[in-house]
């Protein structure tokens, strides 16, 4: 297995233009050795639990050998790991997990996005250059649902010539540079997105999975696992103008990043980890903070005064006075595991009371009408919106 073919068969989006060099510079790698991971004991435990959970068979069959009734799923001996650089969004759709790529942008595109903390990235849909214009336009509309303003595309014709709706903005030489950077070959379709990083990652991640479905590249019986580790500890909230916790405010920082808490908090990595299967999050967890001084510093970074922290989390801070052992955990989503094992198209197919897109429940007709007495007992008041009043 290699990183470019993981999950969908569509190569992961690359930055323009020096992908390999920039990926190395970002410290992103796909490795199979988890023994040096600070949280390796929990990760190894998670693998053991998964192998037992994902044994499809009757009670009494051996999950290690497959003896007895049932079928032992062919799980890999090695689980790969992706270390996230801090420039990637830490959560969200797990197509994003594969979005490692370069940071260099061509001058003509760079100014339009980098001032807003954005980037230019692309994927090469191999052999899709024969798509009719209508289908390409449908892909452009598809990424707009992920807040992208559009999608630039380049088709490499069978004779090696280039066709693109952005050709008028570039010299032929510059277009060829982009094609070469993406390893474009005759018959390929290169799809480019330029925007803020989160928009780019969400859009191209979803587009890559959509292309995989269109081309039927994903085999339902394949199980491709991935551990994602070293999430950023904090991310900057532009609306609140402060740092917020990516996971939660009790996640422990990496030991080697403790000195960065005061000088460069945005670069601090967390002892957090997620397990991903075929692009879906199966579970996640973290090692918790067990030192009072570090927890106090975390609250300060999140904008809590000493008084606020004591009022809201005094029970925790007081407990630290008596000594707290290092601790952590990992939680699995059993319904998601069952969905993947049964090849169900949606998680709603495997849960008892599924909700539809508007969050209503067709089995119980929830949400329903609540009488005033019930609201009064709970101290809840309903406020009508202007739209409801007009109706």
Question: Would you mind describing this structure in some detail?
Answer:
This protein has helices at 19-25, 40-53, 107-114, 133-144, 172-181, 197-215, 260-263, 292-301, 306-320, 334-341, 372-378, 386-390, and strands spanning 14-15, 30-31, 55-56, 71-72, 80-83, 118-125, 152-156, 162-164, 189-196, 225-229, 234-237, 242-245, 272-277, 280-287, 328-332. By secondary structure, it is an alpha+beta fold. A hairpin with a 4-residue loop joins strand 11 and strand 12 (242-245). The N and C termini lie far apart (57 Å).
Summarize the structure.
The chain is of the alpha+beta class and 391 residues long.
Record field, number of beta strands: 15
| Largest β sheet strand count, sense and barrel closure | 6 strands, mixed
Uncertain runs? 1-10, 12-38, 56-61, 66-72, 86-109
Helix content: 25-40%
- CA distance, first residue to last residue: 57 Å
Report the sheet-strand fraction: 15-25%
| Average residue-wise pLDDT | 75
Main β-sheet, spatial strand arrangement: 2-5-10-13-14-15
Shape verdict: globular
| SSE ordering | EHEHEEEHEHEEHEHEEEHEEHHEHHH
Count of separate DSSP helical elements: 12
Alpha carbon gyration radius? 24 Å
Coarse structural class? alpha+beta
């Amino acid at each position: 297995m290699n990183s470019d073919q993981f999950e969908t068969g569509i190569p992961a989006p690359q930055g323009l233009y020096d992908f390999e060099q920039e990926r190395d510079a970002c410290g992103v790698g796909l490795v199979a050795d988890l023994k040096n991971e600070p949280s390796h004991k929990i990760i190894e435990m998670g693998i053991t639990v998964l192998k037992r959970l994902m044994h499809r068979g009757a009670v009494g069959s051996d999950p290690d050998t497959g003896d007895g009734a049932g079928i032992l799923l062919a799980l890999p001996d090695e689980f790969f790991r992706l270390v996230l650089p801090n420039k990637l969004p830490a959560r969200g759709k797990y197509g994003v997990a594969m979005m490692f790529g370069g940071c260099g942008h061509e001058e003509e595109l760079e100014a339009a996005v980098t001032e807003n903390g954005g980037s230019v990235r692309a994927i090469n849909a191999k052999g899709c250059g024969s798509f009719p214009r209508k289908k390409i336009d449908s892909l452009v509309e598809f990424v707009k649902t992920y807040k992208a303003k559009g999608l630039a595309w380049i088709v490499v014709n069978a004779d090696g010539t280039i066709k693109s709706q952005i050709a008028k903005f570039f010299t032929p030489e510059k277009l060829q540079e982009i094609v070469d950077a993406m390893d474009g070959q005759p018959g390929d379709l290169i799809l480019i997105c330029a925007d803020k990083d989160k928009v780019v990652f969400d859009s191209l991640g979803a587009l890559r999975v959509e292309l995989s479905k269109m081309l039927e590249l994903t085999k339902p019986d394949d199980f491709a696992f991935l551990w994602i580790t070293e999430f950023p500890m904090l991310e900057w909230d532009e609306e609140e103008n402060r740092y917020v916790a990516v996971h939660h405010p009790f996640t422990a920082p990496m030991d080697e990043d403790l000195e960065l808490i005061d000088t460069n908090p945005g670069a601090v990595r967390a002892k957090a980890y997620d397990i991903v299967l075929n692009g879906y999050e199966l579970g996640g967890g973290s090692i918790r903070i067990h030192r009072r001084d570090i927890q106090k510093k975390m609250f300060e970074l999140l904008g809590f005064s000493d008084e606020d922290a004591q009022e809201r989390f005094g029970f925790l801070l007081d407990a630290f006075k008596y000594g707290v052992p290092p601790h952590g955990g990992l939680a699995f989503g059993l319904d998601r595991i069952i969905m993947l094992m049964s090849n169900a198209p949606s998680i709603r197919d495997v849960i008892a009371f599924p909700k539809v897109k508007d969050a209503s429940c067709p089995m119980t007709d929830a949400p329903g009408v609540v009488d005033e007495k019930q609201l009064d007992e709970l101290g809840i008041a309903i406020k009508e919106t202007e739209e409801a009043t007009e109706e």
